[in-house]
Specification:
The chain has 296 residues and is of the alpha/beta class. 35% of the residues lie in helices and 26% in strands. It has nine helices and 15 strands. Helix 1 crosses helix 8, helix 6 crosses helix 7 and helix 8 runs antiparallel to helix 9. It is globular and about 50 Å long.
Amino acid sequence: MSGHTVICFGEALWDSLPRGIFPGGAPVNVAYHLHRFGLNALPVTAVGNDFLGDEYVRRFKYWDLPAEHVGRVDQPTGAVVVDLNEHGIPTYRFLENVAWDRIPLSDSLQRECATASALVFGTLAQRAEHNRTQLARLRGWLGNARQVFDVNLRAPYDDLKLVWELARGCDLIKLNNEELLKLLDLVVTADALRTGARLLAERTGCPRICVTAGSKGAGLWWADQWHWEPAQPVEVKDTVGAGDSFLAALLHGWLVRDLTPEENLKRASRVAEFITTRDGAMPAYEVNADGRPVPA
């Protein structure tokens, strides 16, 4: 392990895909991939006192991810039906009033926050007022941890006002091209992503903006400069969780390897492309000495 602790707050759920049911939820996905890269990832979430909750906790043990901050609550374990189009691009239908709408926080987590390197959180889990309160508490406990906001707008839980509120005080914001254009009400132009990233940095005070654009590539606004990495063609099975693996690789390159923005963006893109060639958000793989994924 690298010695860097990253707290990942948000939803734990089961992705119901055409090819089967897979564990998912963006913050848990990020934690899984951070662990593959050797960081101490702490998922903070909740599952139900039911079979799917039991199975999710069993998966944490199998992955060697700590489960002490995974609450067991009375609501059912979360799930989402994922429909894929002919290009493997997903749309989502979420169950409501589920376990991850009621994430508990513990005193031991408050102690972890004092020395954590980063906190990762997203938008979806904030659909519940309970979790918005919990996230505010969690952010207040942090010492010098970097705050990483993974936007992840999912209709009907796509309140743009909430996005602007959550963006305050962040050190890195990651979102996709459609989310960026929607958030800033921009039209598609050749320079829209660069312009949008700069505007988002200015309006939020966040110095680092990452924009993923699927099969086109990904961009990074870093230290007032724009960096772009074109995507490489791969045979896509599904894109579920690809952005989460991208974020994990990017954080590893930033927190541990101190890569240049260009190097970090290139490597994170290759990781995400690898994940799209596998089923589900958390396939088995290892990371080689160059920080590239290889099948386990």
